[in-house]
Design goal:
The chain is α/β, with parallel strands linked by helices. It folds into two domains: about 5-120, Response regulator (Rossmann fold); about 130-220, Arc Repressor Mutant, subunit A. Helix content is about 40%, strand content about 25%. The strands form four sheets. The chain has a five-stranded parallel beta sheet with strand order 2-1-3-6-7, with helices on both faces. The longest helix is centred in the C-terminal third of the chain and has 14 residues, at about 190-205. The protein is globular and about 55 Å long.
Length: about 220
């Protein structure tokens, strides 16, 4: 059974989340600070973290960035559960690597459903095998991308997008489909966000940017042709 770490400094909310997730059959642990959470993930490596944004000793966003920057921890699923509900806050959370974003007040049943949906995402783009096309190689296990055998810098959102494209070469996806498949169908952000991440991904790929094709009036695809 999956282990879930709850990072929440409000005791009543932490207790509610823990009770809800235990009732759903998961093993839960609760910490109230970013420092305690960082120590826990390094020692126990949970399958999923439910992460508050505002913590006594820092921000959940900073902790999320540390998790995504660590090769051993980067594949941990993270759901941000926070009172920060502005679109720019959601975008910041997703851009920094959150798999989902839920605002408070929240429905315990919805939280359970979101976690189940996240854990069901075991399609090819979530596999751990090395994936390659042309001069580009992506290694999910080490959270790294190489271009002509040289490692390149890539943010988590672009990493997820590239991984999805590599899992479905030659197939065209609309912006709404990419939002659903890469960020989740319950994440409320504008479709133009996809264009921003595609642009960033192309910049990361440098002379291999040609792999990401724009299909006019439809969307995007990955192809060597």
């Amino acid at each position: 059974m999956a282990t879930i770490l709850i990072v929440e400094d409000e005791p009543s909310i932490a207790e509610l989340i823990a009770f809800t997730l235990k009732e759903a059959g998961w093993t839960t642990f609760v910490v109230s600070t970013a420092a305690a959470a960082w120590e826990f993930v390094q020692q126990r490596t949970p399958q999923l973290v439910v992460l508050d944004w505002m913590l006594p000793d820092g921000t959940g966003l900073h902790l999320l960035s540390k998790i995504r920057a660590d090769r051993q921890l980067a594949q941990i699923s993270v759901i941000m559960l926070t009172a920060k509900s502005m679109e720019e806050d959601k975008l910041a959370g997703l851009d920094n690597g959150a798999d989902d974003y839920i605002t408070k007040p929240f429905s315990p049943r919805e939280l359970t459903a979101r976690i189940k949906a996240l854990m069901r995402r075991k399609s090819p783009e979530h596999a751990q095998e090395i994936m390659a096309v042309g001069p580009v190689t992506l290694d999910p296990a080490s959270f790294s991308v190489t271009l002509h055998d040289n490692k390149i810098d890539i943010d988590f959102a672009e990493f997820k997008l590239l991984k999805f494209f590599l899992a479905h070469p030659g197939r065209v996806f609309s912006r709404s489909q990419l939002l659903d498949k890469v960020w989740g169908d319950h994440v409320v952000i504008e479709e133009r966000t996809v264009d921003v991440h595609v642009l960033r991904l192309r910049k990361c790929l440098q002379d291999a940017e040609y792999l990401i094709k724009t299909v006019r009036s439809v969307g995007y695809m990955l192809s060597e042709k």
